[in-house]
Amino acid sequence: MSERAPMSFEHARVTRRGFLKAMGAASIVTALGGVISLGRQGFDPSGDITVWWAGGDPERIFLEDHVVPMVRAQYPSIGNIDLVNIPEYEEKVTISIAGDVWPDVLKMFDTETVSWHKRNIPMVLNRYIEGPEGIDMSDFWPGLGFLHKDGDQIFGIPIDAMDFAFYINVDVFDELGLDIPNNWGEMREIARKATVRRGDEVVRYGTAALLTWDYPFWAWLLQNGGQIWSDDKRKATFNNEVGLDTVQFFREMQFEDNSVIPPGVTEGWQGDWFGQQRIAMMKCGPWCTGHIELFFPDVNFEVVPLPLKRDVSPPPRFTNVLFSSIWTIARKAKNPDGAWAFLKTMMSPEAHRAWTDLGITPPGRMSVANTYMAETRPDWVAFIDQMVDSSTEYILDRYTQVRNLLGPEINNIFNPQVAKDPKRALDDAARRIEQEVLRFQ
Amino acid sequence: MSARARRLRKLNYKEITAYLFILPDLLIFAIFIGFPVFFAFYMSLHRWEIFSDPIFIGLQNYAKLLKDELFLNSVKNTFIFALGYVPGAVFIPLFIGLILHQKWFRGATLIRTIYFLPVVTGWVEIAVIWQWILNPETGLLNYFLSFLGIPKQYWLSSPALAMPTVITLTVWKVIGFNLVIYAAGLKGIPDQLYEAARVDGATGWRLFRYVTWPLLKSTTFFVMVLSLIGSFQVFAPIYVLTEGGPNYTTDVMVYFIYNNAFQYFRMGYASAMAYVLFLIVFTFSMIQWRYFGRGIRL
What is the pTM of this model? Predict the structure, then answer.
């Protein structure tokens, strides 16, 4: 074993110089780091995060194969990312959180966002959005505001944006020499022409039921110059004359023209009937595209804008409804910085391009929708074009109850086996919604 | 120590042992049934929307129920369901059980197994298959009925047919279970009784009327009580087949409670409904016991 040389003054002096050099270098690095991180101090995403969500395979692929690797690359210190796909999502999440069991990142469906915000489930994200690790929210569709903003408070960020458009069977339209419907009158006429009967049997319906649940009703009602709620949201106004007129139009299409496949006939999803070419055109959201492409690859279809009412004076403010899935950080997240790292990455333009590639729905970022999506998915441009005229103002606290109280009455109007008087049906729904929902607003 | 004291001590030891054996089950019962039962009553006296603090409102939830048209409609529908379901769930398995019990019948075990398949199949799978069969346009049932000249029927979307359809499917699903109970009951009837009755000249209907039926009374009572309670608790077929529609004609109490509790999270109001349901089930079970259960030892 060699004997260690005694430390000399010379050696100590050199070391001191080295030390001073090192200190100088460290100061420069620190200063540069400070400039680069622009005050990242305090932001520490290290540690595990739990993500609660619900959805199908494309969304799972998006999270597992795109978002998680991106987060890991950008924030190497982040720990385990536990993606938990929860069936019967709203019920189980609500009960878990009521029992004080919280995730870090949370998906919120459009019907629940406002209710969950009123009950303090999502965190108000302003401190992250406006902080050094923030993101520019002006790139997200402003029309989605009611779903994730409350005044100045931002309680979530939309991953996507959806509205309704018309799906056209191009072969049928070419065969019959039909143009794309531009207004309600043309829509009715085309539906009539595209309907094919053989004896008593309808071989092909002109269109699927166009008004089967709340969202489509709101879209047609808004086009017709109607209003869903009073300004203070304490009274239902969808059952007034405009609402009745809207419902009557579609009722006549079904009961007089017999060009609409009535509810209760398919017992399943009408998109399948479009795929089987038993419907010439239908109203649907972007989620129909993937389904038709996957299960009915032979169908030659095109997505075009929703026909408008056109003859309304003054012109309506909105002509469609907008909805989205909103992602947020849970108020009692154990690792909120880690959750923000995940959320920020998920809401990056890069992630929104990956979302677009998977063909789930149009992305929540306008810049990605208007450039990347317009190039890669031109069939979705119709959805994008309408978004500036679309509204989320229908959304309320306790919206699930609105849907559950209105849906059966809409079915009562259009189900030929019930054929309830539209006025009575709308009044019944309005009365119950006022009692059970609007009085709490 | 006197003999009596020793006997008591011995008894107590036995009792303690018995209580120790049932203690785990008792604890589970207390935690998962006993406590929720009392807590539900406590909740029913409060306005409690899961995230807010409960507010005591006395009997207001119960008073509101009496004015809630949709709740009253669900009570009516539950009774309609019970009226259709209980006779079917009791007498159809009995009838099939009697046939399978005949000495000349071959393959009874196989038939019983086939009947039991729906019992072990989940409601979701059953709903998917039956929705295909019942589809008005493309369903097999309407297709076969068309050969008899019967026009297209809207089994699940017609207010007149939806409830009978749901009742029929629910009875079909439970037949196998009740059949097994009846098979056990029928096997328990000694052959000598039939032989003696035949010696006395009884055949066919009289054998059933005077031997089988009285000796199956306990079994029938048991099946009837189970069916009645089951009918008031019906939920899954409504949830997966009709969602309470069309026009609220299949909206039954448990489905209504579920919506209020787990869709709207009005826990106090839903608990009040649950207590009304409990009172109804309890009352009818007592009536059954009082009038049909005399002399029966289960």
Answer: 0.84
